[in-house]
Amino acid sequence: MPFYREVVSVLEEAEPFVKLLAHSPAHTADEMIAAVPATVKGLAEITQSGDGGLVEISAPGVTKAAALDRVCRAHGVPAGEVVLEPLYG
Q1: C-alpha 70, offset from chain centre
Q2: What's the CA gap between 86 and 7, in Å, rounded?
Q3: How many CA atoms, within 13 angstroms, populate the side-chain half-sphere of residue 62?
Q4: Which of 20, 61, 68, 80 lies in disulfide reach of 57, CB 3.0 to 4.6 Å?
């Protein structure tokens, strides 16, 4: 993957991140979702990515809902006319 790289410590990185993926083979996605908010203390958006202990950590305001809202507004589509299906289930 050209945009993938493992990061040992985000505190030692010189460049900002758009999104981090956190994975733990020892924890479920629900356990990861429960643990991450206490760590980031409202400084990021946390979403579940699948059910295998993977969470997405994005900048505040960067969510799938925000992106969908932006696309709908750009195309004049009312939000009530949009249906979104999860990619996993």
Answers
A1: 17
A2: 28
A3: 11
A4: 20
Name residues whose C-beta falls within 8 Å of residue 49's C-beta, 6 or more positions apart in sequence: 21, 29, 55, 56
Q: Six-digit token pair at 27?
A: 């924890």
HSE-CB at 19 with a 13 A cutoff on CA atoms is 14
CB atoms within 10 A of CB 27: 17
Indicate the pTM of the whole model: 0.60
11-20, 28-37, 53-62, 70-79: range with lowest mean pLDDT: 11-20
d(CA 10, CA 14): 9
Q: Which two tokens stand for residue 33?
A: 């979702």
